[in-house]
Amino acid sequence: MKQIVIRAPAATNIAQMEPLIPEAREMTALLEIASELRQKSLKLANTPLPGLNKRLRTLLRAMNSYYTNKIEGQHTLPADIEQALNNNYSIDRDTAHRQRIARAHLETEIWAEFKTEGWSWRDTFSTDMLSDIHYHLYQGMNEEDRVTETGEPVSEGELRLQNVTVGMHMPPDFNQVPTFLERWRSAYTALPDGDTALVGLACSHQRLAWIHPFKDGNGRVSRLHTHVALNAMGLTNGLWSPMRGLARSHQQYYDALHNADSLRMGDYDGRGSLSQSGLVAWVRYFLGICIDQVDFMDKMLNLQDFKDRLETLLIVEEAKGKSGIKTAALLPLHYIAISGPIERGQFKSMTGLTERSADRLLKALLDYKLLISDTPRGDVYMGIPLESLQFLFPKLWPEAESSIADR
After folding, report:
1. Which helix (H) or strand (E) holds 382?
2. 280: helix, coil or strand?
3. What pTM did the predictor assign?
4. What is the rounded distance in angstroms from the CA atom of residue 156 to the CA atom of residue 217?
5. 247 vs 240: CA distance, rounded Å
6. Where do the domains of the chain lie?
7. For residue 174, what are the CA distances in angstroms to 16, 220, 302?
8. 303-405: in CATH 1.10.10
9. pLDDT tens digits in sequence order for the chain, 407 residues long
10. HEC profile of 309-350
11. How far is residue 76's CA from residue 92's CA, in Å, rounded to a whole number?
């Protein structure tokens, strides 16, 4: 027999959002998962390849933009995102629209990370912060982009001024949205640091989506807020984000969110208005996604494995004979990945080549963007061009690999 899920009418009482966190008997298992995530995240933060972090963070911001917009059905090709960052927009109206959305998300993520630098994770829980995220996201778009799917204009940073229906869910009455957001803030910031706070952050993502505070952009804002809060907890360090995992299991993501919207299913389903079992399942799913992302990046940043993949890239490029890249670059490139930027002269001497050959190799690597320099004679540091992903970080962003292969 098909289960019938009953949805609540538009809420007007904050008690209708309970439970905000599972009761004690459900927390033990969740705290174990949260502890595993925290330990693995802190281990990843001590990656032996710190010289990669700057460019890896830049790459992951573009990837996050791609994946969060893919969840909304508005993603664009990774190469098109790269073009948008260079102010090179497609003549195709729909493609250009998606490029602007992608760039707006990427720039909002940068803004939010810098704004919250040095903040406690608790500081990220405020209506003002949510409104600021929404404002910067939509300010980065053209006026024609700032509309809902039905063509209604969206006011950046403004809480919704009308009631809405999201699938079978009716979010709180718009007059009560500030009250629900204040309850959301106060409940989660009251949690102790550590594993409990991490479980609370998972819950807060779902309950923020449940409140649906804005006319449009709620999913993007919720994911950006969670991303920023995880960063403020000291867990991501620009090396991972849940957005990739959420997008790669987007139907499960939607299902888990929606199931946690369900009304309580009897005496064994908690004591709040909403389903505790639905909320617990959501937390398990979300924390599991985060652990998968951390595990993946931990594997990618293994010192010897990365060196082997870098060597393969150089061998392939040298065999092509077109780019001018040679395997003599392996030692200095791997050194940069471990230690960070070095002087050009030091790089050339480490290749073991003659001055002229080393100059040609250095130029080839800069053209390929495997090396980057901020000035014509400045130090060089590691780049991660999209062309290199299939070798350096295989399966990290498969769509980027495909888009390059199709060029």
Report:
1. strand 381-382
2. helix
3. 0.94
4. 10
5. 14
6. 14-300, 303-405
7. 14, 19, 49
8. yes
9. 333 344 456 788 999 999 999 999 999 999 999 999 999 999 999 888 999 988 999 999 999 999 999 999 988 889 999 999 999 999 999 999 999 999 999 999 999 999 999 999 999 999 999 999 999 999 999 999 999 888 899 999 999 999 998 888 899 999 999 999 999 999 999 999 999 999 999 999 999 999 999 999 999 999 999 999 999 999 999 999 999 999 999 999 999 999 999 999 988 898 899 999 999 999 999 999 999 999 999 999 999 999 999 999 999 999 998 889 999 999 999 999 999 999 999 999 999 999 999 999 999 999 999 999 999 999 999 999 999 999 999 999 999 987 665 55
10. HHHHHHHHHHHHCCCCCCHHHHHHHHHHHHHCCECHHHHHHH
11. 12
Which residue, 141, 143, 188, 137, is CA-closest to 158?
137
Q: Which pair of tokens denotes residue 298? A: 């931990």
Residues pairing with 380 in the sheet: 342
CATH hierarchy code of domain 14-300: 1.10.3290.10
Q: Please say whether the beta carbons of 5 and 168 come within 8 A.
A: yes
Q: Which amino acid is at 147?
A: V
